[in-house]
């Protein structure tokens, strides 16, 4: 996948739902992968997220995965999923394929399935506060 942003991507910040078991599991999985691009994980809706990205719609980041590039690029949904895989050494070829017309429906289906599972398992907590910030 070529990230078409006009600027090189040197770091990605992933805003994840700290009250969602699937999101937390994926966060831990990402931390265990070999990165081609450094990743920073911040709980969506947290004080840290609001401070780092004051102009962002933080309510929306709790509904849909959001990834932010070091130059302010923003990806959500299937695009965010693809960019996360693109940052990983073992999964960049899969991200390249998912970004194609043939692969994109699979990325979208994956996100729809994850959203359905997430909706059924999220603990229902309100937006995160600074206590859910997990170093990483």
Automatic annotation (TrEMBL):
Superkingdom of source:
Bacteria
Cross-referenced InterPro entries:
DCC1-like
Q: Which GO terms describe its molecular function?
A: protein-disulfide reductase activity
- What name does this protein carry? DUF393 domain-containing protein
């Amino acid at each position: 996948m070529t990230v078409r942003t006009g600027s090189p991507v040197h770091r990605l910040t992933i805003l994840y739902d700290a009250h969602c078991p699937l999101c937390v599991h994926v966060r831990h999985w990402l931390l265990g992968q070999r990165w081609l691009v450094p990743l920073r994980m911040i709980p969506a809706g947290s004080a840290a997220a609001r401070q780092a990205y004051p102009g962002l719609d933080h309510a929306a980041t709790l509904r849909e995965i959001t990834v932010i590039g070091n130059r302010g690029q923003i990806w959500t949904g299937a695009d965010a999923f693809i960019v996360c895989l693109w940052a990983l050494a073992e999964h960049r070829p899969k991200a390249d394929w998912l970004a194609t017309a043939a692969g994109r429906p699979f990325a979208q289906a994956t996100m729809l399935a994850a959203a359905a599972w997430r909706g059924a398992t999220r603990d229902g907590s309100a937006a995160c506060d600074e206590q859910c910030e997990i170093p990483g």
